[in-house]
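User: I'm writing a tutorial on reading structure tokens. Could you give me a worked example: one chain, its sequence, then its tokens, then a sentence or two explaining what the tokens reveal?
Assistant: Sure. Here is the example chain.
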Amino acid sequence: MSHRRKSTVGSPRLSALSAELNDGSVSDSELLAPAAPKLNLREAWDNEFTDEVDPSVAFFYKPRSVFLLILMLAGLVYTALFVLDGDDVVRDVKIGLAAGAVVFLLIGMLQFRDGPFVRPHPAFWRIILALSVIYQMVLVFVLFQSKHTVRELLRAYVDPSLGIPLPEKSYAGSCTLTPETIWDQMDVFVIAHAVGWYAKAIVLRDYWFCWILSIMFEIMEYSLAHQLPNFAECWWDHWILDVLLANWAGIILGMKTCQYLSMKGYSWRGINEIPTYRGKVARTMQQFTPHSWTDFQWEGTKTFKNFFAVIGLLYLVLQTELNAFYLKYLLWLPPSNFINVWRLIYYFFMALPATREAYQFMSDRRCKRLGMHAWMATANILTELLICIKFGRGEFPEPMPLEVKVGWIIFLTLLSLYALVRFGFGKGGPFARSSTDPPRVIPVDGTSNVLDASGHVERPPKPRSSRARKAA
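And here are its predicted structure tokens:
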């Protein structure tokens, strides 16, 4: 049994005010649903945009700020007074930094705003957001150090096995297409490719988006093989093992999962309303699945805003991938080190709400502000890029090959020309409109404002005074 959520806000004034508050965490169906008026704006927001809580698990959704404050202070007292009783500086620094991070995560869980998701619990996504803030502060600290200092800090405080230059491995040693050479290239990274692209498909929810990313990353490997030796691969490794096998398998499985989540019936029955124990267990497991599902229609060629947003998102995803390889190379982090693994897990959970907020910001004209998850994810990625640029000075003396430079110049030129023709001089572009074209009518809050050829609102002429009429 399924039912639709009821909305409780509907007056034009409150609809306009609530639209200003929309930061990308609300779906279109929730914004457009009919509702009854409320007097208090904050109550209106909570009632319209918050999912109904199952009464049988309402205990887990009630605030426990005082209890958590007491629990936090008790933990600090126990740790500071009864655990740290020695003079081990390294251990004390580790525990102190970890305790500070836990306290900040607790504050974020209690005080940060909810994101677009409510499963398994809104507090989980607030913790992810708080974790992104901690990661950003760590990245800013690393940015103002030297690479030698960071390597030593990682060895002393994180993992004693670090601080050793990584062996350079190239996958382009023997490019003869034989069963032996193919088997020689089969390693754990093939599975990592498939799992990674499964996760990207879950995040992006679009076949074409994933395929373009898959091809573009192989092109990036061709372009940067002169800097990172493990980017040098045989042609069949790029296009057969990676694109057509590992990446394809991950994308197909990810999109099939998206289709299942999009088509399945969602039931919000409470646990107490389910008569059987099997049903109660199934409902408990559903708490770790989406409460609802939104299909992404990126439509990158529809408007210039969509085109720019899709290109920007493509760049950020590619930059996230490249940052992983460059940070690993510059900070001497082996691929199997837990820092690399936890970074990938963090970005997966961060990308889920961040991409949802970015899609809302792109597709909903009433969304005036980018959501905090998307804002912090962008800050994390670009700060990592700054670290790679700074630490990469003097590490890559070999210049970029001429054919790579020419290829990128041609690609960027064609991309710019397409955007200019499609959105500038093409049909429907701003430069294609003549003075005889009819004005555009755009509904705003139940009314219609007429826009002139320059995009400004046309105001009706003011009535002339009686003196002006007599003079005429």
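What the tokens reveal: The CA atoms of residues 451 and 457 lie 4 Å apart. Residues 235-263 form the longest helix (29 residues).
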